[in-house]
Amino acid sequence: MNRPRLALVPGEPAGIGPELCVRLAQQPRDDCELVAFADRQVLESAAAALSLPLRLLAAEASAMAPGDLPLSAIDNAAPSVFGTTDPHNAAAVITALQSAAQACLDGEFAGLVTGPVHKATMSAGLGIAYTGTTELLAAQAGREVVMMLANDIVRVALATTHLPLRAVADAITAESLARTLRITHAALRDDFGIAMPRIAVLGLNPHAGEAGHLGREEIDVIEPTLAALREEGMLLIGPLPADTAFLPAKLRDFDAVLAMYHDQGLPVLKYSGFEQAVNLTLGLPYPRVAVDHGTALELAGKGSADPSSLFAAVATCARIARVRRTGVRA
């Protein structure tokens, strides 16, 4: 069977993304083919800083030796310096992301892997608040999406993402919660090959509301929504108190956990295996997997950045692409 072709976008050119891509190019792969959407000079500078071989090929070519990396060139507006972001290059980062994503939408690639971006620099360069790559790709595809982070221990999807804590309760409605659970359920089935996914749903309040004594969101919103979705055939457990739901004995019974807000679920996931964690965008027409770390500007060009998350992101994206193509569980 032909290996799936994946589009690879390093992200912020002044951060560690380019050098992680150079490290990735050193690894022989039998699970996928990679094509980078990036600035040639940035990748070559990263390879020189790391003293690693890099041969940039035409986008249609296949890597044959360590250091080979097919490239769809996206030129930056200004030279890039390790550790120093330049808002003038924000447009090139957007172009790389959207070009790679469009190629996935057009069927030229089977999935997209992305490195970290620097939101403040993106916002400064674009002149608007850059909310994130997940939102950018969702708007381009015209899809509702869900953010999930995963490692070998647990998969955590989020009912809300980057909101102030005081806004979270109002954002959790029956409609939004049902939509999130349907997208998560479909992704576990279609992307991970789990025929009947078991999803643990956390409560919003301490002790899942303590029968209404610590808040009524569980009674008024979460429990009725879960009951309705169970009628559709979903296996949903909860709402569960968040402080005990992640115990290893309980996690063995779940295929994923839905957390109500960012810092309810992600600290546990990152503690359980930050280096191997990846960020998935569920609900897109193609698999998109990102690293679960930032640009680490202070490490850029020094060769000390850990490539584990990018390696895991590529492996995960390749597995999902195969599951979507064959229907066989990854």
* CATH topology label of the largest domain: Isopropylmalate Dehydrogenase
* Overall CATH architecture of the largest domain: 3-Layer(aba) Sandwich
What's the CATH H-level superfamily name of the largest domain? Isopropylmalate Dehydrogenase
Q: What letter string, H or E per element, gives the SSE order? A: EHEHEEHEHHEEHHEHEHHEHEEH
How far do the termini sit from each other?
Answer: 15 Å
Give the percentage of residues in beta strands. 15-25%
Count of individual helical segments: 12
Radius of gyration: 20 Å
Label the structural class.
Answer: alpha/beta
Mean pLDDT: 95
> What fraction, in percent, of the residue positions are helical?
25-40%
Task: Let me know the largest β-sheet.
Answer: 12 strands, mixed
Q: Give the count of structural domains.
A: 2
* Shape verdict: globular
Total beta-strand segments: 12
Quaternary structure of the protein: single chain
Low-confidence stretches: none
Brief sketch in words of this structure:
The protein is α/β, with parallel strands linked by helices and 330 residues long. It is built from 12 helices and 12 strands.
Protein architecture, described:
- By secondary structure, the protein is of the alpha/beta class.
- The chain has 2 domains: 190 residues, Isopropylmalate Dehydrogenase, CATH 3.40.718; 136 residues, Isopropylmalate Dehydrogenase.
- 40% of the residues lie in helices and 18% in strands.
- It contains 12 helices and 12 strands.
- Strands 3-4-2-1-5-12-11-6-7-10-8-9 form a 12-stranded mixed sheet.
- A hairpin with a 4-residue loop joins strand 6 and strand 7.
- Helix 1 packs across helix 2, helix 3 crosses helix 5 and helix 7 crosses helix 8.
